[in-house]
Amino acid sequence: MDLSDVSGIQLATSPPPRTAIDYNSSFEESPAKRVFVERTLLSHYSTYFRVLFSNEFRDSQASSHRIRLITASDFHLLITIPRAFEQGIKPNINLQKAVELLEPAAYLQINIALEHISDIICANLSHENIIKIFRLALLYHTPLALRVWRAMIRQFQTMFATNAYLTLKENELIGLLTDKHLNLKSEDERTVVVNWIKHNSPLQSDRIVQFAQRNFARRPQPDSTKYEVIRNRQPIGAVVSFGGWASRGVAQKIEVFNKRCERWQTCNFNYDVPNIRRAYNGIELVDDKLVVFGGFNGIQHFQTTTVFDLETKKWKSGANMHDKRMNGVSRLKTAEVYDPLSDRWTEIANMTHMRSDGAVVSIDNKVIAIGGFDGRNIHLGGECYDSIVDKWYPLASNMRTRRTGCTAVPIMDHVCMVLGGFNGVKRLDTAELYDMREGLWHSVSVMHTARSNFSACPMDFSVYVAGGFDGQSTTKDSERLDLRARKWQALPDLAEAKSALRMISLTDHPFLDELFHISDDDDS
Q1: CA dist 96 to 18, 128, 469, Å?
Q2: How many CB atoms lie within 10 A of CB 226?
Q3: Cα–Cα–Cα angle for 252, 257, 259, nearest 5°?
Q4: Are 3 and 121 in contact, with CB atoms under 8 Å apart?
Q5: What is the three-state SS of 359-386?
């Protein structure tokens, strides 16, 4: 059975195979296509059999039970799945077999097998099969249908580019268009509807025509002013800017870059998180927890840690660092690592050189410290920390330019990029790539704005850069490097000029609902 050639309805109505089950202690399949299984084992794995054996049905006490949905070999496989998980083994099943097992697994309510089958199906979704699988899941397992629906929302731009969406039913398309999370560019919304109507008969298009006439409009900012859209939507990904040093001290506004309308928006962070507004601090997203540590607020140099849980919306004070990373007195070469699970900072071996305003990045399961200032010299090189031997090693080669106040981001597993900074004479607009496998630095096209003490973060094959000091003043300029085209693109300004800010990226994350506050009302 080829899933790409068979519709969900055909899959659901194929002639049912027959399997007879004898309740004995053997798992061997007999020549008569009978599977021998213990009652207790079936009751343990299957809600269907647990109910069957605990009631007064005629079949409850029978020595055999006939099922018309599954072959003996597939039934054996279904029972094997939960047994394998109990032994710590993850069964390897291909997509086609997972689809074939979905109906009997749901009918027999073998929950462990059903969850595993659902995971396999979701891991193999594509624009070519997602609609058929969604309709099949609607018939047999609603939780899977919800997962596939969310995947359609995330993949809809690809479905549009490949015309896969044209096979959607009218009510399915309307449902997607009214979802605020739909991943579709504003300029493509009208084209989606027009092309779908052209592809389908007038009898199938009556509701969508009325829907479009009733809902298409030029929405107010932030979503669209140039294009008519069905509704304002939440972008599937966003860059979030925290803190920084502005003209009146630490920046109070949290800004979010909205990829749909290509501009920065200020947002309300409606949770009382003390000491999260800082400059020159560190910030990392670890297991849905925002960890903010160190930094400066204009009065106090912090060695404290604040942990904000994006799921529960609660914060807690974490353990203090051993050192104030910015103590206002001296540069440091000490280093420490934080474990969010144990809430513990652990001192590690000292770096070879003292550094302030250097860049730190993690690639290839190693931490790399690059550039910076030791009080007398701006560093040209970097060093790499090996946690196995607790030792720092110099990088295989030096950068092409001395840099302090620079920023580094990971690009791939083995590659990082260092951007901007100050070389002792001027602010820099240059950037360089370092590949751990070859140990060499490679130049990258220059930024539009020279800057130091700024922030950068990667998202969706791009590197976003914002803020910093351009040599004359704090800047609000932002830009983006398309890694595939290797070109920089100027972006709209931040709401306020600031340096020493910190940015993270969120993609397909529930916390985006909190940042954008877009109504669920279909008439928005």
Answers
A1: 20, 14, 56
A2: 9
A3: 165
A4: no
A5: EEEEECCEEEEECCECCCCECCCEEEEE
Give, rounded to a whole angstrom, the gap between the first and last alpha carbons of the chain: 44
Region for 296 from its dihedrals, namely left if φ exceeds 0, alpha if ψ lies in -120 to 50, beta otherwise? beta
Residue whose entry in the numeric block shows the structure tokens 């919800």: 146
d(CA 260, CA 28): 58
Instruction: Classify each residue of 325-340 as buried b or exposed e, where b means 16 or more C-beta atoms within 10 Å of its C-beta.
Output: bbeeeebbeebeebee
Cβ(230)–Cβ(213) under 8 Å?
no
The answer to whether residues 237 and 253 touch, using CB atoms and an 8 Å cutoff, is no
Contact 105, 136 (CB under 8 A): no
Cα separations in angstroms, 152 against 86, 143, 148, 300, 327 = 33, 14, 6, 48, 50
Q: Digits of tens for pLDDT over the chain (524 positions)?
A: 344 443 333 333 333 344 555 444 333 444 445 556 677 888 899 999 888 888 877 767 777 778 888 888 898 899 999 999 999 999 999 999 999 999 999 999 999 999 999 999 999 999 999 999 999 999 999 999 999 999 999 999 999 999 999 999 999 999 999 999 999 998 999 999 999 999 998 888 899 999 999 999 887 766 767 888 999 899 999 999 999 999 989 998 899 999 888 899 998 776 677 777 899 999 999 999 999 999 999 888 999 999 999 999 899 999 999 999 988 889 999 999 999 999 999 999 999 999 999 999 999 999 999 999 999 999 999 999 999 999 999 999 999 999 999 999 999 999 999 999 999 999 999 999 999 999 999 999 999 999 999 999 999 999 999 999 999 999 999 999 999 999 999 999 999 999 999 999 999 999 999 898 888 864 43
Instruction: Report which DSSP code applies to 172.
Output: H
Strand partners, 456: 465
Q: pTM (2 decimals)?
A: 0.84
Closest listed residue to residue 432, CA positions, set 479, 478, 400: 400
**Residue 250 CB contacts under 8 Å (≥ 6 apart), including other chains:** 243, 244, 277, 278, 279, 297, 298
Q: How far is CA 72 from the centre of its chain?
A: 40
**Structural domains of the chain, with CATH:** 3-152 (3.30.710.10), 155-229 (no CATH), 237-516 (2.120.10.80)
CA 88 remoteness from chain centre:
27
Smallest CA-to-CA distance from 232 within 263, 261, 193 is with: 261
- Residues 136, 11 contacting (CB under 8 angstroms): yes
d(CA 267, CA 402): 37
